[in-house]
Design a protein that fits this description.
Structural class: alpha/beta
Protein name: HNH endonuclease
InterPro entries: HNH_5, HNH_nuc, NA-targeting_endonuclease
Shape: elongated
Largest sheet: 4 strands, mixed
Keywords: Endonuclease, Hydrolase, Nuclease
Order of helices and strands: EEEHEEHEEHHE
Radius of gyration: 21 Å
Strand content: 15-25%
GO molecular function: endonuclease activity
Oligomer: single chain
Number of helices: 4
């Protein structure tokens, strides 16, 4: 992870909830500078920090927002969407069978194969690398002599905690007071 002192290209703006916590760690909750400025003028956000760069129109000049906080609190207790990406995030972007963490090689696997009545749900899908997925085939992990993985439905807080293990490649210095990354787990 690289901390930039200069404004990143495009002036992305970190979006915080009304409690000054990020709305999301993975993906990191950011808006374009245009969206941030629009919400400033609609009085939906408070500007917490700015870049040194100026945004100008014929009648207004302002510093580009780098961090904004919502006025209205957005509840974080909604259930996360069941997506391939969220399954990979839950499983740490690694194969649950061998631990291989080559993202370009990840697939998802039905623990109980669909041919044996398994469904496509949080409780039956895990991240698996292609070789392990092929090795397992249409069998259960036990039948294939593989470890029995833990497939579960994560809540939003579990996914966000997992997302903190994978910080973006760059962050602006003005964002650092509002973000927490598991430093010992950084890649």
């Amino acid at each position: 992870m690289q901390v930039l002192e200069k404004a990143p290209s495009g002036w992305p703006c970190l979006v915080l909830n009304a409690d000054y916590q990020p709305l999301s760690y993975w993906p990191l909750s950011v808006w374009s500078w245009q969206e941030a400025v629009k919400n400033v003028f609609l009085d939906r956000v408070t500007v917490v920090s700015t870049y040194e760069d100026k945004i100008r129109s014929p009648s207004v000049e302002m510093e580009a927002p780098s961090v904004v906080a919502l006025h209205e609190y957005v509840a974080q207790n909604r259930a996360p969407a069941f997506t391939r990406y969220n399954v990979w995030l839950r499983d740490g972007f690694a194969c649950v069978y061998c631990g291989r963490d080559k993202v370009e090689d990840l697939t998802f696997d039905h623990v109980i194969p669909r041919s044996k009545g398994g469904c496509t749900s949080w409780e039956n899908i895990v991240a698996a690398c292609s070789p392990c997925n092929l090795k397992k085939g249409g069998r259960t992990p036990r039948q294939a002599g593989m470890p029995d993985p833990r497939a579960y439905r994560p809540n939003m807080h579990q996914l966000q905690a997992q997302g903190r293990r994978f910080p973006p490649k760059y962050l602006h210095a003005s964002w650092m007071d509002y973000l927490y990354w598991d430093a010992e787990l950084e890649r």
